[in-house]
Each structure stands twice: as C-alpha cells, then as structure tokens.
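so my prof wants the structure for this chain in the tokens format not the other one, which i didnt know existed until like an hour ago. anyway here's the sequence
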Amino acid sequence: MTNNTVYPFFNRELSWLEFNTRVLEEAQDLKNPLFERLKFLAITASNLDEFFMVRVASLNDQIIAGYSKKDSAGLLPKEQLDRITLRVHELVSEKYNTYLRSLIPALKKEDIYFKRPKNLTDEQRNFVEKYFFNQIYPVLTPMVVDKSRPFPLILNKSLNIAILLRGNEDIEPVFATVQVPSVLDRFILLPCENDKKEFILLEDIIKIHMDMLFIGHEILDMACYRITRNADLSIDEDGAEDLLEEIEQSIKKRKWGNAVRLEYEKNTSQEIIDYILEESEAFEGGMYRIGGPLDLTFLMKFYNLKGYQDLKFENQIPLPSITVQNNDIFEAISERDIMLHHPFESFDTVVDFVRQAADDDNVLAIKQTLYRVSGNSPIISALAKAAENGKQVTVLVELKARFDEENNIIWAKQLEKAGCHVIYGLVGLKTHCKLLLVVRREEDKIKRYVHMGTGNYNDVTAKFYTDTAIMTCNPYIGADASAVFNMLSGFSQIQRLEKLDIAPVGLRKKIENLIKNEIRNAKEGFGGQIIFKMNSLVDESMIRLLYEASEAGVNIKLIIRGICCLVPEYPQVSENIEVKSIVGKLLEHSRIFYFYNAGQEKIFMSSADLMPRNLDRRVELLFPVEDECNKARVKNIINLYLSDTDKTRILHSTGVYSRVDKRGKEPLNVQDYFYDYIKNKIDNRFNFNEITEFKPRTYEE
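here's what i got, hopefully its the right format
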C-alpha cells in the first residue's frame, strides 16, 4: 500500500457500544446462573451511565464548540452522536426485553417476585403503609415549581418522580418533583406466605402515597424520570496552586454538569415531558422512553442478597501463588523472578510483600504508585505502618483517577498523617503505571525488589479482574524503577532505561520498533508473528502500523476485550489480522505483548492499552518477561486465550462479533480452566517452574 492509502477504522464510541452489547449477551445467556445474569444486566446499565457522562458529554461539548474535525472513521461529532443515539435506543430496547421477558419470568420460577401496587394483598398494603410513614416519609422532600420556586437542579443519575397537581385555586396544572431517596433500599421485601420472596420498588411505594405529600391537591399525573449529566472533570492544572483543592472542588461540580440524557417511564404524558424539557435543559438526541424500572443498576445490590448462592457462579477462592513456595517473599524473589496471574493466584502475595517490607528491619525505603485502591485497603495500612516504623515511604496517589478522585484524596491524607511522602500526581499527566519498589540492606549492600503489574493495587478488584504481574530483584530493573520514581517525585529527567519503557517518554516508540522489526523479519523470510492482549485498541498510528505488518505477511492475533478501532479481515489490508474478545464472569484486564522476533521471542506486560491517552497523556509502564519459565507460562496463557470456545467473540470487517464455531473444537472456558489448572498444581504439589512445553504457533505454522 502507498502512503496515500485510506485505511479503514471503526468509530471508537460505536465499538464501545458493541462491547456493552457483549456484556448484555451474558445477561441473556441461559448457561449463566440467574443472579449472575442480573448482575451482568446491572453492569450493562452502569456502563451506559458512564458512557453518557464521559463520552457522549464530550461529543456534546465538541458540537457546542463547533468542532468540525472528523474522527479516524470519517465521522463528524454530530454524525457520531446521531449513530450513537440510534444504537443506544436499540441497546436499551434489548436490555429491557431481557429484563422483562427473560429475567423476571426466570425469577418467578424461583419464587422471587417484583410486585406492582395493584397486585398487593391486604396484608402487604398495610405493611407498605407503615413502611412509608416510618421509613420513607421523613426523608422525602417534595418540591413544587411556581413563580416563587424555580425548577430545582436535578442531581446526576438520581431517580425522581414528576407530578402534575391541581389545587382548589389553580387554573393550570402545577408541576412538582420528588427525588427517590438514594439513601434508602431500592427494593423492599414484603410479607408473604410460604417460601416465596416478594419485593416492591421504593418508587412504587412513594407513588401509592403521593397524595400524602400534597394534601389539598389533586394528583393529575406522575411518572419517574432520571437525568444523566456531564461528569468529566475540567481541571486547570497549570493554574491551580493546590491540585488537591482544585480536584476537591471539581468533584462537587460533577453532580451538576450539563444534562446529556433524559430517561422517563413509558407511560409518561407529553405534558410532563414538555415541562421537564422547558424548565430544565435540552437533551440533544438523549431522550429515552423506558419500558420498565428506571436505573437497573439496583440489580447489583439485589445480586448481593443472601441465600441465593445456588443461583450464582461457584465461589472460586483465589489460590496461593504457585511460585512463592515459602513465607519469605524476599528469599523467593531472590531465587528467581515470580510471575503472578490474578485472580486465580491471590493478591495476598502482593499485600504480604508490602507487609513484610513494613516490618523488616533491613528495609530502608518503599516507593509505590496508587491509581485505584479499595475502600479498606490493606496496602494503605501496610504503607502507613512502614512509615510509622521509620522507613522512608513515598507514595504517588493519582488524584485524577476518574470516579475514584474522592476515595484517593481520603487515602492520600491518611498516608500523609502516617508520615508518608505523598505525591499528588503530575501536572498534565495521569500516573497509571503499577510500580512498587522496596529498597533493602543485605550484607552491607543495597538490594532493590520490584513489583510491576498490569492491574491496580486493589485487593477487591483483584478478585474479579484478570491481571498479570512480575516480582523481581533484577538490578537493572531495580535501577530503572528508582529512576522512574525520581522522575515522579522531582524534576529528574530520564536519560536512559535498561529494561523498562515508560510513557509518554519512550513506550510508544518501543512498541512501534518491535512491530517494525516483525515487518522486516517477515519481508526477509524469517516469519513474523504478533499477539497482543489488551483492553482497547484505539491509537490510529498503531493501527496503521499493524495494517502495514499484515500487508507484509506478519500473522497478527489480537485479544481485545473492549474497544477495537482496527478493522480485521479487510481485503489486502488486514487479511492476516484476527481479533477476538472475551467477556465472561471475570473482567479481562491484563495487557500482554508477544513478538516472534525470528524465533528469539520477546514478551512484555504493560499497564497501558494502545490508546492515545495511554501512550501520550499518562505515565505508563512496559516491562519484559525474561525468566524462561515465566515466558513459557505466558505463552501457555496466550494459547489458551486463543483457544477459548465458550466466551470468545470474533470481530469481522462489518463490525459484527460472532461466537466461535465449536464444531470439531474441544470445549474450553479459559477463565474456569486457569483456576482449575492452578488448583490442580497446588493439590498435586506440582512445581510450576518445570513447565516449558508450551509455545505459541510460529509464523510458519
């Protein structure tokens, strides 16, 4: 192809919607336990909320600003928004069809019911009345709109009830609104006979008793509605004297951003809709009539009801590391590099590493980056204890981790109180790399131990995110890690790293050179193969380079869970590129990069996806897998992902994903396999270090 070749691209936003469709398919999959299907539906709803708050909001901002540049797929912002609106309407329809026609009937078969007010028994009506006056009524705040009381600013994502009223002296109907309190349970268990479980939604109880909030007025009409707002923070980092204070102020504004979506009940009258539109804000392409309960994210809490374990996936408790075979982690790392594969191997190994470092008299310093941590983080506790024990503890807490800013601010302040040196991120960049450095004195020498991972230091998400990590005392990696932390904590500029590559300095260039090397090798007859596993592939220049590699004969296999802007199977451009997506009970999160390299295989792991934000606007880390046993293990993992038949979808040039044709293939759910495989090795006291028989298919094969 020439430099003037017009390469094909999928639109980023439409590709994301197809990912959310794959999540919805898990809610539709009858092979999944019923409560897991409810959970997948809740995730679909939550994902769509964030999509509107960030991606659709950004497109709206571009349209308002008159931005007229086309994206890589050739679409203007307005064209993107029009296509998004069409696809989301289809997706919302599918979502509620799944809820009403599949999940609700399935719940009934398990004697679980959501009751409508008209179907309540006398006993239940009495219960609901008492519940309303004792639990709900004191919390409600009815707000009438008239000349003296303007239309209130509706809180982002809050569920509300719009009411049309008429008093004795009113000529025209009066509009009022009541927020359904988010501090109360969305679903309430009703008294019922036998072993049945019957629930009623909170908004239905409020509707039944709405006349008690407007005594002396006639209720003409009422309906639930919900507004989604722009929640992408705009932070003036250069002009902010105190980044912490600036972000704290920006978080408060998130609740009141510009409206981007209006959802309302199917039976909502046009009069109510017109009133909301007239008195609040316009919703450009963002109005959705909902044929069921608004905001299905409540199903996530419903999933957590006790007593229904038989309707959920079998509980798979993360297993001990199969490569850490003694209690002294420093000794284990000194013997050889340790690879971890979460959640199949427990995150406790990482927590124990920090805890041991905190209590070890020979440890002098601990340095760590934190992007997202849990609500009660053992990592934070261990770092605080290390500081209290007199160790030099430096922690970079990324305050700009979207939707975790408030949580991170709390932890940052707690670490400071414990005596840690806390860095509040870098101006203009998000620090997304996962890096932990422990400096230890051993026999009058300084030795550095390093943990590098693809996932966050979060003990909660580590139980259902698949991630990989390397723990090493390689002196070159240790020196590189020190250089990275010096850059993060001061004004030091990285001149040269021996083993690691970081963004936005050299990571992009490193991957580009590795791809170009495969192109050269293919053209010279040595064969070429690339296998990438990541969350998203968006970067235009990287995609163009992969197209060039395909044209040169390089065999390319991509395992991409989410967004993929690359078009596979395109004649004369990407005929050598295969794209697969795995969506299952665990969130695929690891990033692995394999290069055949004429038989001298190179394997890397990274915190980065191939997206402009990761490569150009974040501090990211790319690190090599050099231990031969670990390389064999990663190749085994890659091959198994490529062989999955249960949760894999294959992307076609049309943008459509299809299931794997299982004919002639051995059934394989790769996520279940990994857990069973590791459990088997532990049960049989098998030494994983001896596994070397796995290797990827070569270019010639």
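also thought this was worth mentioning. Residues 12-311 form a domain with the polyphosphate kinase like fold (CATH 3.30.1840.10).
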